[in-house]
Amino acid sequence: MERLCPECGEKIIGRSDKKFCSDACRNSFNNALNKDSKNLVRNINNRLRKNYRILESLNSKDKTKVRKETLLKQGFNFVYFTSEYVTKTGSVYKYVYDQGYLPLDNDWFLLVKKDS
C-alpha cells in the first residue's frame, strides 16, 4: 500500500512508521495544526504575555508594592488574568499564571509570586 504525505501528497519512502515525506512537511503540518486558529485567541494570549512580563519585571523580590499608575504606564490591562484566589478573609488576588496582584488602598497594589 502506497502511503502519501498528509502535507503535500507526495509518496512516503522509508520506514513503515514514517508519516511525512520530509522534515519540512512535518514542520509545516505541525505549525498549521498548532497555529492559533482565531485572532481572538492570539490577541488574548499576547495580552496575557504582556501583563505577565510587566508583573515579573516589577516584582523582582516575589513581593512588592506598586502604584496603579505604574502598572498602567507600562501598559498593564486589568481585564486579562488567568485565575483568582480568594483568601479566608475575602481578599481577592488575581493571577497571570504565577504572578499575582492584590488591590490595596489608595491605588496601591501588592504584587506576589505563587510558590511553584
Walkthrough of the structure:
This protein has 116 residues and is an alpha+beta fold. Strand 3 (92-96) and strand 4 (99-103) form a beta hairpin. It has a five-stranded antiparallel sheet with strand order 1-5-4-3-2. It starts with 22 loop residues before the first helix and ends with a strand. The longest helix is centred in the middle third of the chain and has 20 residues, at 39-58. It contains three helices and five strands, in the order ααβαββββ. The chain has helices at 23-34, 39-58, 68-73; strands at residues 63-67, 83-86, 92-96, 99-103, 108-113. The chain is elongated, with a radius of gyration of 23 Å. The protein has a domain at 39-113.
- DSSP strand tally: 5
So how many helices? 3
- Residue fraction in strands: 15-25%
**Mean pLDDT rating:** 93
Q: Identify low-pLDDT runs.
A: none
Distance between the first and last residues' Cα: 51 Å
- Give the neighbour order of strands across the main sheet: 1-5-4-3-2
* Quaternary organisation of the protein chains: single chain
| Anisotropy-based shape | elongated
Structural class: alpha+beta
Cα gyration radius (Å)? 23 Å
Biggest sheet architecture: 5 strands, antiparallel
H/E topology pattern? HHEHEEEE
Helix content: 25-40%
